[in-house]
Amino acid sequence: MPTAADKRRALTPEALAMMDTIARTGSFAAAAREMGRVPSALTYSVRQLEDALDVLLFDRSSRQAVLTSAGQELLHEGRRLLQELDAVANRVRRIATGWESELTLVMDDAIARRAVFDLMEAFYAERLEDGTPPPTRLKLQVEVLAGTWEALLHGRADLALGVPAQAASSTIHCEPAGELEFAFCIAPHHPLAALPEPLTAAQIAEHRIIAVADSARMLAPITVGLLPGQDVLTMPSMATKLEAMLRGLGCGSLPITMVRRHLDAGRLVRKSTYEGRRAGVMHYAWRDTGQTPGKALAWWLDRLRSDTTRRALLEQHEGLLL
């Protein structure tokens, strides 16, 4: 019978990473290729782990790498432990050098990508006293609506660009980035294009609306503009929503700066609606630990204090991925 010490010795970061790789790739053979090991050695390592924990982690009756309930629990907790180990290493490095080993940025899909890339380019162009660039690795995530706030709230990101509303949290600090105005648009050949303005709720409800799916995993998703009983076409991003609207597949609202060139070219028609002018204040937010921010986060916060930078995040949509 394995002792508690045996179990602790078996639960190494390498063993947890092995479980994660097998689950992610779906087979022992694929995991072995990714890890640079032979399948037999990987199978032996899994059996050693099972013996040490005295549990069965994989269903041997399946040709694929199917986790048992015990295996699923180990995978879930193992991933959490690996994240915590990374967080400890990150904190240690920051204390030693002042620079985070990694800074994760999350941007709402409504934020202008060009402006974010301009900021990343400027960050990498910085030089330390020894002439080297900042040692911090940047990681960029794109989320939608509540998914942006959730990524920050649950520790998957350090800085969020485009939080729709200032949510209450004692561990997160929010600052306004500016107002983002939305335009209700349809293709010129869409039936709503010929109707007088403003469009009523009843008129809009008769036609399919194109929406972008909220990317929140645990928080309640946010639904914007959907009327009771209305048909909906759900897209994964603002860019795909725009494409669907250009093709006349439905109606919907997008940031005015994202659709302006299509309106000017006549590819889209803007219509006023019963809602009147629709706009909201976007925020940027970061985790406030009560300590001095690391040098990478401080660099981004310093740039975000600029009115020009904040306007660019809400306005520079044209010419990139659209």
CATH homologous group name of the largest domain:
Periplasmic binding protein-like II
What's the number of domains?
A: 3
Largest sheet: 7 strands, mixed
Helix content: 40-55%
Task: List the total number of helices.
Answer: 12
Query: Might you state the CATH topology name of the largest domain?
Result: D-Maltodextrin-Binding Protein, domain 2
Percent strand = 15-25%
Family: Belongs to the LysR transcriptional regulatory family.
Protein name: LysR family transcriptional regulator
Pfam families: HTH_1, LysR_substrate
Domain HTH lysR-type: 11-68
Description:
The chain is of the alpha/beta class and 322 residues long. The protein has three domains: 4-92, Winged helix-like DNA-binding domain superfamily/Winged helix DNA-binding domain (Arc Repressor Mutant, subunit A), CATH 1.10.10.10; 100-178 and 281-315, D-Maltodextrin-Binding Protein, domain 2 (3-Layer(aba) Sandwich); 181-278, 3-Layer(aba) Sandwich (D-Maltodextrin-Binding Protein, domain 2). It contains twelve helices and nine strands. The protein has helices at 4-10, 13-25, 28-35, 39-53, 69-97, 113-125, 146-153, 201-205, 238-246, 256-264, 295-304, 307-315; strands spanning 102-108, 137-143, 159-163, 172-186, 209-212, 232-235, 252-255, 269-270, 278-287. Strands 1, 2, 3, 4, 7, 8 and 9 form a seven-stranded mixed β-sheet that branches. The protein has a two-stranded parallel sheet with strand order 5-6. The longest helix is centred in the N-terminal third of the chain and has 29 residues, at 69-97. It starts with a helix and ends in a 7-residue tail after the last helix. The model has no long low-confidence stretch (mean pLDDT 88).
